[in-house]
Write a structure and sequence with these properties.
The chain is α+β, with helices and mostly antiparallel strands. It has three helices and eight strands. The protein has helices at residues 3-20, 145-152, 154-164; strands at 32-39, 60-66, 72-78, 83-89, 99-104, 110-117, 120-127, 138-141. Strands 1-2-3-4-5-6-7-8 form an eight-stranded antiparallel β-sheet, covered by helices on one side. The longest helix is centred in the first third of the chain and has 18 residues, at 3-20. It is globular.
């Protein structure tokens, strides 16, 4: 491997961290890169779509930095340097999103951008088509399904009704699943 080709990954990684948050560029602003890892498309939050994605074998590099405020800043780039995702998490396992996020198509154009609040989408999310045309906005409350049901009184009613019937089982609201029906 020549010296020029060995410097390319280092330059790509340093560029990705300095460009994804505006202020992240190593340790000078209280941000420290804690790990760089190869990941699959699941790192973009598309785990359920990974098998259906046309580019499911895309190789990605995830850079995780610890900011001075305790958040974990993350940038995910393709192996050729195209930004795919940037955002912040509350935990080192990268399971609780918190802060501004942006997701990008494989061609580098923005797919969506918005805000997470303790793991839930919050506020207005802007969405874009692959050609860059703006699509309909989506608005989120920042609450998960259980919080929404409790706030609307639906969860409380279900618990009261099940308490009246001794043999009734309280069912926690979950996603509906369908079963194929044979005729």
């Amino acid at each position: 491997m020549t010296r020029r080709t060995s410097l390319l990954p280092i330059l790509l990684l340093s560029f990705s961290i300095s460009s994804f948050a505006g202020t992240v560029s190593g340790t000078e602003n209280g941000t420290e890169i804690i790990r760089v890892e190869n990941v699959g498309i699941q790192a973009l939050g598309y785990a359920e779509l990974a098998s259906a994605a046309s580019n499911d074998n895309e190789r990605l590099v995830r850079i995780v930095a610890l900011a001075s405020n305790g958040r974990y800043l993350v940038a995910v780039r393709s192996n050729i340097g195209i930004m795919r995702m940037k955002g912040a998490y509350l935990d080192s396992a990268l399971t609780v999103e918190d802060g501004n996020f942006a997701f990008y198509y494989a061609n580098g154009r923005i797919e969506s951008e918005g805000h997470y609040l303790r793991g839930n989408k919050s506020g207005t999310w802007l969405r874009y088509a692959m050609d860059g045309a703006r699509m309909a906005e989506r608005n989120y409350t920042g609450m998960d399904t259980e919080q929404l049901l409790t706030a609307s009184g639906v969860a409380g009613k279900a618990n009261l009704e099940s308490a009246k019937e001794p043999d009734a089982i309280a069912v926690r609201p979950t996603r509906r699943s369908s079963t194929p029906v044979e005729f």
